[in-house]
Amino acid sequence: MRRLLVAKVYFDHNSTTALKPKVLDAMMPLLTSQHGNPASQHCFGRRAHEAIEQARRQVAAAVGAQASQIIFTASGTEANNFAITGIASNLAPAQILTSRIEHPCVTKPAMAMARRGWQANQVAVNAKCELDLQDLQTKLATPTHLVSVMLANNETGSIQEIKAVTALVGKQAYVHTDAVQALGKIAIDFNALGVHAMTISSHKIGGPLGAGALVLNKRIDIQPLLHGGGQEKGLRSGTENIAAIVGFGAACELATQELADFAQHTAALRTALEVGLSQLNAVIFAQQTVRLPNTSFFAFENINGETLVTALDQLGFAVASGSACSSASGEPSHVLLAMGVEADLAGAAIRVSFNRDNTLEQVHAFLHALKQALQKLRQMTAVAA
Amino acid sequence: MERMPIYLDYSATTPVDPRVAEKMIPYLTEQYGNPASRSHPYGWTAEKAVENAREEVAKLVNADPREIVWTSGATESNNLAIKGAANFYSEKGKHIITVATEHKAVIDPVRDLERLGFSATFLEPEANGLVDIEKFKAAIRPDTVLASVMFVNNEIGVIQDIEAIGHLCREHGVIFHVDAAQATGKVDIDLEKLPVDLMSFSAHKTYGPKGIGALYVRRKPRIRIEAQMHGGGHERGMRSGTLAPHQIVGMGEAFRIAREEMHAENERVRMLNHRLLAGLTSIEESYVNGDLDHRVPHNLNISFNYVEGESLIMAIKGIAVSSGSACTSASLEPSYVLRALGRSDELAHSSIRFSIGRFTTEADVDYTIQLLKDKIDKLRELSPLWEMFQDGVDISKVEWAEH
Asked: pLDDT by residue (tens digit) across A43-83?
């Protein structure tokens, strides 16, 4: 087995996380010997079809939904685009509300609907990264047909009160939630949330890249994003990515079994981390908010985030500055700006996200490395000044 | 465990080449970075692998790697090309030309555009499945903005004259999209010479994994498309969504193998197909669908008269073939492709698509010929229509009494 030369410790699991060995075992036959097209009538096809249906049941069970409510897509991004564009396309144009902390794959399709007569607006969050329900109520005074608020934020890990959102919205609009970061980290009950549609993704929970799903309330009328062979009840055409779907199913089943253990283990790591961070005078964002157990988002005054991430990488730790998707852009996190954090401090932000395989020893080693890196960077800054 | 039949359905999906699977697996295990992560080597390794694969895909079709956009498969590529280009250039006009025998992943997006105010011409091909260039030319209108013609048909394997159609499109300023899902590794594609603006590719029809495809978007002259999937701005904003490195690597390897081995492989497959053709056409009242010269060597589509299609499929369980394409085979409707060629419902109903490939052997072909001969004989023995035909009755002129 080849090994990577640097960054031996991986603390970037909210970006993507390693495939679980049991998931790979479930996928292997489909990557090698079993190659049917699920739409074919012969036994190669029937076996592929049955494999997909089993995965559909596994995914549904993980979120308290019925198998018939699961529409497989190629990613969370596709499922979010499908939800926003597909639901809005069947409704009369009105206001479409998202929040200021959504992933761009929710806000951008919402903005794209402006060309079809919709008015896209964003609900504010408070300094703790919680949705401002007052602001939501105010904005709902304008005729609104679709609302999308994420269940858990990818950067701060803050968990939103979706039940309060659906209660406020009432019958006025359909509600969608992006639960990509929540799946496998907290318990999800699709029906209890009261939403009409929910996005989930495989690769954030130890499944492979290449599979996601939209969980749909059966009463909802939605336009497909991809037209063609009529797979997924005509709602998502294209030959199914069977290996990835089977992996997604297996990962969902494992995540459900391991949920309590995951939460307990990563929360303990985070507590240890944040005790150490406080001693180093870090600013920890949304620390008092109900958060995902594995996520910590923080910054140091006058220390550039990118520089610190690079220094930590050389010391053997892979962490993120902001979210991976926007990490190429160099702009400060839109989530922190929405929380009212100063642009300079927002630009300094670093995200650590754990999984079950991380250890307390790694956290202590990380704090040690961080201390070293900070000292060095502060010396350099002092010299430059 | 049930014994698996001989697989002769390569046009539905191909097995993953073991060399491809081997390349993919490291990206499923220890190299699991998100290629968009710029802050650590997990991300960098993934990004490099993605770019190498992009080069391999570009090389097979002689394009620039910057012209290749990853998608989740040919269906998405077709949707992105058709809706993306039609919407971007809609001010030039709102008429689209395509062919009645295209894959549903082309026909349905065009139908969707019709609902949004576009108009479309669905050209009927000739009886051999090929598009008549003069008829194509006649269909071009001043407001024609886009044309979409598939390179190789999935059901009957015929190869369209993409170069001639492309030149016509260029002359008239029409954007030209080609669905090449069934063509890669089977016909030579040189996008430096071919006047094509957009071309769709799939991995799983060319011994790569399912769930990955690509769209070629020409740079010179530059073609623009409206993104259909918005988000993190991946693929230069044309297609957002986290890339799956293991699948991309698989597609790259599959296309590399295709580039290096296609000529030798196609010769071998051609010999097998000749053998299959000779064997099956020795059966009385059998009709090959689609032109025999302009055709990929992997495909043979034959109608057997006086045999009911579904009974035949049931009778030949020892081989895995399809009647019609996989995507529509769950419905019992006769193939719309064969009907567009002017085949009667009866003949369309009794047609079988044999598609062979990399792992098909001479023994598989011989077994298939013998199986078909035996089973068709048996089925015809039970058929009163066959008896009448043997007696010289012209079935089409029989007047059936109503009970």
From this structure: 888 888 999 999 999 999 999 999 999 999 999 999 999 99
Q: Which residues from chain A sit within 8 angstroms of residue B111, using beta carbons?
A: 227
| Candidate from B13, B105, B240 with C-beta closest to A229 | B105
CB-based contact A348:A303 (threshold 8 Å): yes
Distance of CA B61 to the CA centre of its chain: 16
What pLDDT digit, counting tens, does each position of B108-131 carry? 999 999 999 999 999 999 999 999
- In this complex, do A80 and B242 lie within 8 Å of one another by their Cβ atoms? no
- B246-264 pLDDT, tens digit per residue, is 999 999 999 999 999 999 9
For B39, the closest of A31, A45, A320 (CB atoms) is A320
Chain B residues with CB-CB distance to A325 below 8 A: 36, 231-234, 242
Residue B106 with chain A: CB contacts under 8 Å: 228
- B196 φ, ψ to 5°? -120, 140
- B231:A328 CB<8 A: no
The pair of structure tokens assigned to B201 is 């590719």
Interface test with B, best of A9, A10, A150, A209 (most B CBs within 10 A): A209
Dump strand ranges (E) for chain A. Answer: 9-10, 70-73, 95-99, 119-123, 144-148, 174-178, 197-201, 212-216, 283-284, 295-299, 317-318, 350-353
Between 3.90.1150.10, 3.30.1490.150, 3.40.50.300, 3.40.50.460, what CATH number should domain A9-13+259-384 receive? 3.90.1150.10
What fold is seen in the domain A21-254? Answer: Aspartate Aminotransferase; domain 2 (3.40.640)
Q: Who's near B329: CB < 8 A, 6+ residues apart?
A: A39, A40, A41, B322, B323
- How confident is the model at residue A31, as a pLDDT? 85
Beta carbons of B108 and A17 less than 8 Å apart: no
Distance CA(A195)–CA(A176), nearest Å, equals: 6
Annotated domain spans of chain A: 9-13+259-384, 21-254
What DSSP string runs through B118-187?
Answer: -EEEEEPP-TTSPPPHHHHHHH--TTEEEEE--SB-TTT-BBP-HHHHHHHHHHTT-EEEEE-TTTTTTS
The token duo for B178 is 């080609």
Q: What is the mean pLDDT of chain B?
A: 92
Q: What is the DSSP letter of A114?
A: G
Nearest residue of A to residue B75, measured between CA atoms: A238
For β-strands A295-299 and A283-284, DSSP reports them as antiparallel
A230–chain B Cβ distance below 8 A for any pair: yes
Of B269, B370, B368, B363, residue with least CA distance to B319: B368
A15 touches chain B (CB under 8 A): yes
CB contact under 8 A, A238 and B105: yes
CA distance to B64, B182, B215, B336, per residue, from B162 (Å): 20, 14, 17, 22
A251 touches chain B (CB under 8 A): no
Active site residues of A: 325
Closest-CA distance, B400 to chain A, in angstroms, reads 33
Residue B257 CB partners (closer than 8 Å, separation 6+): B17, B19, B20, B207
Of B30, B109, B209, the CB nearest to A3: B30
Chain A partners within 8 Å of B4 (Cβ): 43-44
